Amino acid sequence: MVDLSAIFSDNPYFSAGFGLLGVGAGLAVLRQGARRGADLLQRQLLVSMEVPSNDKSYQWVLGWLSRRGAATIQAAESGQGMSWMHRRISRAVLPRHLAVQTSYKQHDNGSVSTNFTMVPGQGKHIFYYQGTFIQVERQRNTKMIDIQSAAPFETVTLTTLSRDRAVFSQILAEARTNALSQNEGRTVLYTSFGPEWRPFGLPRKRRLLQSVILDRNVSESIVTDVQDFIANGKWYDDRGIPYRRGYLLYGPPGSGKTSFIQALAGSLGYNICILNLSERGLTDDRLNHLLTVAPERSLLLLEDVDAAFTRERQQSEHAAYQQSMVTFSGLLNALDGVASSDERIIFMTTNHIERLDPALIRPGRVDVKVYLGNATPYQIRRMFTRFYGDEHAMLADAFVQALAGHSVSTAQLQGHFIAHKKAPQCAIDQVADLF
Ligand SMILES: Nc1ncnc2c1ncn2[C@@H]1O[C@H](COP(=O)(O)OP(=O)(O)OP(=O)(O)O)[C@@H](O)[C@H]1O
Question: Which PANTHER family does the entry link to (predicted)?
Answer without folding.
Answer: BCS1 AAA-TYPE ATPASE
